[in-house]
Structure formats: structure tokens, C-alpha cells
Amino acid sequence: MLFQLLEKLDNKKPFEVLSAHCDIPCKIYDPITAQLAVLTMIRMVDLLNELEEKDELSLNDKAQFSRLVGEKETHGHKVKDEIRVIWGDYIKQPQLEQFPEIHELVHSIMLTASAAKQKIDKDVTLKLLTLVNRFAEIFWITKGVETYTAVSPYPPAQNVIYPKLS
Amino acid sequence: MSPVVLHGAYLLIKRRRQYIDGDIVYVNHAKYGKIVKRIISGNKLNGFYLAGDNVLSVSIEQMGVVEQSQIVGVVRKIINPS
User: Do A85 and B82 touch (CB under 8 A)?
Assistant: First the structure.
């Protein structure tokens, strides 16, 4: 209703017009951003678990705790955003026909990312990585690019699906 | 800025003395004109890096460093088409 009211005002006395969409269909998509965001979440959980082992938390430890949780939250959002954009903008009928599981997979990623944000639970973040890796694998297959699995050469040293680019 | 700001949305803009990461701001950009983007990082001394929410949007590199003086205000309210 507020929108309609503003629209009427706008028609009578136009507001300033801004651009928010420099969205050019540049066709640049890559699930690695989502994969890195999940790895970050896993790493944050590892560091949080290290903090938990301390008998008492200093002021710095408490500040660190707050930062780790904050980063885990931020990267949880990032995973969801990145996957949603590829799913919404790149995945179309041909990819869906090739992989009918995509909708369900993306929904699982959304739910699992939320669960990973809500708790400090390594198992949930690892489950999220498995799902996001599967999404990445599907993405690269639809692009005609082979993939391979390798352990990320940095913490948290987990299996990641990478494209085999020559 | 999809999906946060939809095409045709009305925005309530407020001028601020300080802007922080995550703020959606109205910027007077030399190349892109009057544009709405999100602050990724930066401060008023060294300038800000901005980008759109959508991966198809202009990148941080394309936007370049934005000075505080180029920022008109922060988006306080978004009224998307209903």
C-alpha cells in the first residue's frame, strides 16, 4: 500500500531516479565463492571449539569469540546468496532436465546453511560442504567441465570439488 | 542490487557522517552516475569499496575506490513494488 501511495506521489512530482541494477548478463558464474564460504564456516567452528577447551576466557578470548561467531554468520549468508544466484540465474530447463535433483539440493543447502548458522556444530558444516560440493560438481558438468576432488591446501583442509581447467 | 532492491523500488535516503560495511548507499559515481550499491569495506579516510548484491552486478574493481564525498546517503528504507 505504501508503494502505491509513493507511486501516486511520484507520478505527480517525480522523485530522483537512481540506478541499482548494472546487472549485465555477463554469464560469469562460479560456485567457488560458495565453497570458500563453507570452508570459512568450518574453520570458524574449529576455532570456536578451540576456545571452548579453555578453562576461562580472557577479554581478548571473548572478543575473539564474538568475531568468530560473526564471521560464521556472515559466511552462512554468503553461501545462501551465492547458491541462490547461480540457481536463480544460471540453472534453466536444460540443466534441470540433466539434473532433476537441483531444486531439492538447493533447498537442502538453504536449510543446512541456516542450521550451520544457528549452532556451533562441525557435523552440520561438513554436511553443508558435501551439499555445496555436489552443487559445484553439477554446475561444472553442465558447463562441460570435468571435476576432481582435492583437499583444500589450507585449513580446514577439507575435500573440495575443483574444475579441471587446462 | 537484486534481490534486496527490486526494479522500481522507492528508497528513503539519509545523509550520515559515517558509513560502515554492509550499508547500502546512494553514490554519485563518475562512471556509473547515480547508483545504489553496498559497501564491502573501507572508511572515510581511505575511501570505500562497493559492489552490488547480485553476482551479475558491477564488480568492486569496476566501481573503484569511492570517496566519502561521493556518498550522498545511506538507504534507510526500501519499499519494493508490491
Answer: no
Exposure of B63 in the CB half-sphere (CA atoms within 13 A): 27
pLDDT category at B52 given cuts 50, 70, 90 is: confident
Q: Is residue B2 very low, low, confident or very high in pLDDT (cuts 50, 70, 90)?
A: low
pLDDT (tens digit per residue) in A35-77: 999 999 999 999 999 999 999 999 999 999 999 999 999 999 9
Write the ipTM.
Answer: 0.78
Q: Do A29 and B32 touch (CB under 8 A)?
A: no
**What CATH architecture applies to the domain A29-163?**
Up-down Bundle (1.20)
A154 touches B: beta carbon within 8 Å: no
B72 and A CB contact within 8 Å = no
**Cis bond before residue A14 (omega within 30° of 0):** no
Cβ neighbours of A20 in B, within 8 Å: 1-2, 5, 7, 9, 35-37, 52
> CB count, 10 Å around CB of A150?
10
Residue environment code for B44-66, b if the CB has 16+ CB neighbours within 10 A, otherwise e: eeebbbbbbbbbbbbeeeebeeb
| Alpha-carbon gap, residue A45 to A39, rounded angstroms | 10
Q: B52 is written with which cell numbers? A: 552490488
Asked if pLDDT for residue A23 goes beyond 60, the answer is no
The CATH number of the structural domain formed by B10-79 is: 2.30.30
| Residue A129, pLDDT above cutoff 70 | yes
Average pLDDT over residues A14-32: 76
> For residue B60, what are the CA distances in angstroms to A51, A117, A140, B74?
35, 27, 25, 18
pLDDT value, residue B15: 94
